[in-house]
Every structure is written in structure tokens, then in C-alpha cells.
Amino acid sequence: MTGSTTTGGATTGLERAVADVLERDACSGCGLCSRLDRSVRMELDAQGYARPVFSGPSEPIPDAEAIFRRGCPGVVVKAPTAPRGATPHALLGAHLGVWNAWATDPEIRHTGSSGGALTALHTWLVESGRAARVAGAAVDAGAPRRTVPVSIMTREQALSAAGSRYAPVAALDNDDVLAPGSAVCAKPCEISALRQTAADLIEGEPPLMLSFFCAGTPSQHATDALLSELGVGRHAEVRALRYRGRGWPGRFTATSGDREVSADYDESWGRTLGPTTQWRCKVCVDAVGEAADIVSADSWESDEHGYPTFVDGAGVSALIARTERGRRTILEAEAAGVIELAPLSMDRLAAAQPLQTERRRFLRARLLGSMLAGRRPPRYPGYALLRLSATAPRMAARVLRGTFRRVRRAAR
């Protein structure tokens, strides 16, 4: 493991567990291990992904290895137990409510990636005192090419953090994640890790957990490559960078010197950023935030073939309440005039999210192809993946063969 150290001549159990995840290329870059050992730092590796590095002698907290093995998304992701009264959905998970939603504040709606619903909730949570802060992620103000963990305590900070960040960031590498009174907004893998370990790491009630549908984490190198293609060289100063927002779906936009460059969503995500997503994301069982209290997603319009149309317009988010706490929070925000809600069916949302549904449907085949090619993925107990793949066996076989070939080729 790059950067590993020993303590008193012997490698600690946590170091060995982290090394195993890294060797299997199963790390999602969530930052959980930085909460378990004071010597762990999250740094970009040679491929441009966030990875844990032991910067000195290992200093694990009590039971660090056991907590890691329960919560690390590179080891295991357990299907959450659905709350009483929840409606199941095989592809997008159980829910207590699902709505189209958008911020009533025009600036927040315009600035957010879709309808600004999460940004509106962040602002309302801190301004109403329901949360002391929201631990999340945002642009690095000093180096806008990069994305960093942040703590949101004001409307202005919420607006600065609005919009998707298609780049590596370890949201759990933030002390405020465990601070009393925090809410947390993070990728599904990070929320899963926090949910599984909250009882070990946090005294009292766990934080309100918010997440979003995640298409995967691209390499930081992809952002630099896209900038270079747009005429902003690797060493050029970038004063501002947004991946989306200010319209729906919004454009990748960067300011360097006295000029602004941009690319549309298909060009930025579809051609440059998306193809570089790390391998762990390609075998993700829960990119739809089943472990969260509240999940947001783009509620795209679909074409005649059922696929999303990326036509600029007023943004619309989908909001899903996974827990009673999440449902109550959404309805209170609506009553406070923070967001507007409209009916939405989970099947309609599934039709607008083919990437998520197809990934879940054929994940069992992808996992088997990876294992046959010699790469051991994480364990995903409770997700009934075999049953899903069995609904389309021929396609599952194609996915298995394709995954096997890609993993073998990557290994060579």
C-alpha cells in the first residue's frame, strides 16, 4: 500500500485491512479511514483518485479494524432495513415518499444542479437551527480545479457548494461529520459508511443524512484534460470552475484570466468525465442512496425511447424520503415555503434514470465477471441481485463476458 507505515515494527490490523481494499482496487475514496486513524490522509493517487495514505505511525482509535470492516464500502455494503410502511422498489430502493421538487428561491433553483432542492434544504436546516452545520463538499476556493470537504453554516456557503462536483472528494475526511448537531450531505457510499459506523463514532443521535443519485467519481485528471481541450492549460490559473448548474442541466464552465470557457453536459460528462469513473463505482450496489434519510436526483424528461433528454430548462429535482425522519424533514421544509413538491412515481423516476436501473439490474453479472477475472469486489448482502439479473439472462451473460474481458485487459 502506498504510504503505509508500521508501528513498533508491526503493521496494524487497520493498515492491513486498508491495504487489502487498495490492492483489490475496491476503494471508493470515502474518507472513513481518516476518522479511524489520525495518521491517515486522503490524497490523490497517480490515477487521480482520492486514496488513504498513512502519513506517519498508525494511530487507530479503539476497535478501528472492526469498525472499518463493518463500514468500509470497499469491504461491504449491507442493504438497509426498510422502515415500517415503506414501499419497496427493486431497482431504486424502498421509500416513504417521492416527489418532484424545486427550491422556491429563484437564485437557489437556478444555481443548483437541477431544482436546487438539496441546496434549499441545506440553507433551511442551518438558518432554522435544525442543524448547526451541513458537512458536504464544494469547490476549493483557493484552487478551483479541486473539490474539498466543507461545512455549510450560511446561505452564502450553501450557494457556493451548490451544483454537482464531478471529481474526487472524501466527504468523510471532515471532523464536522462527527460533530454534535451536524447534518451530512455526501455520496451514497459515504452515507452507507457513516450509517454503518455512526453508533461507534458518534455519541447520541446520528446526523440527518442527505445524499443524491451518483453516476460515479471521475478521475481528477479528467477535469484537467477537459480544461486543456477547452484551451486552459494544465498550469494555467483557474479562478472559477463549475461542472453544472446555472440552468438545467447546465454547462461545465471555467474562468481563466479574462476569458470563460464552457462545454455542454454531453460533452463534459458524457465524453470526458464519465468514462474515467473509478472501478469501484462501476460495481456499486447503491448509487441511489438507500442508506440516507433524504435522496435527491435529476428528474429528467424522457424521449420517445425512454431515455433522458438534456434540454435546458427550469430545474426539477426528485426527492425521496427513505426514512420517517427524512419524510418529516421534507414535509416541514415544504410547509415552511422552502421547496415546492409535486407528485412523482418511483417507476417514472426509474424511467428517467436508466444508468442507475441498468447498473442495479445487471450488477450480479458484473460482480461475477470481475471475480472470474481475478478481481474481488465488495460484498453486498441483502440486495437480491441474482433475482434481478435473472429477469434478462441473455443480457446478463453479455454483461458478465464484457466485464471479464475489461478486468482482464486492465490487469494486463
Question: What sort of overall outline do the alpha carbons produce when their principal axes are compared?
Answer: globular
Number of beta strands? 15
Output the CATH class name of the largest domain: Alpha Beta
- The helix content, as a percent range, equals 25-40%
| Biggest beta sheet summary | 8 strands, mixed
- What value does the Rg take, in angstroms? 20 Å
Ranges where pLDDT stays below 50 over 5 or more residues in a row are 1-9
Overall CATH architecture of the largest domain: 3-Layer(aba) Sandwich
CATH fold assignment of the largest domain: Aspartate Aminotransferase, domain 2
Spatial ordering of strands, largest sheet: 5-4-6-7-11-14-3-15
Range of strand content? 15-25%
Class derived from helix and strand content? alpha+beta
Number of domains: 3
What number is the mean pLDDT?
A: 93
Q: Please, how many helices?
A: 16
SSE arrangement:
Blueprint (H helix, E strand, L loop, with lengths): L12 H11 L8 H5 L3 E5 L5 E5 L9 H8 L25 E7 L2 H6 L5 H11 L5 E7 L7 E6 L2 H6 L21 E4 L2 H14 L6 E5 L7 H10 L10 E3 L9 E5 L2 E5 L1 H9 L5 H4 L11 E5 L2 E2 L5 E2 L7 E5 L2 H12 L3 E5 L2 H6 L2 H8 L1 H10 L12 H5 L3 H19 L1
Parallel strand pairs: 4-6, 6-7, 7-11
Antiparallel strand pairs: 1-2, 3-14, 3-15, 4-5, 8-9, 9-10, 11-14, 12-13
Helix pairs in contact: 1-3, 3-7, 14-16
Which features does this protein show?
disordered N terminus; 412 residues; 3-stranded antiparallel β-sheet; 3 domains; 8-stranded mixed β-sheet; 35% helix; alpha+beta; 16 helices; Aspartate Aminotransferase, domain 2
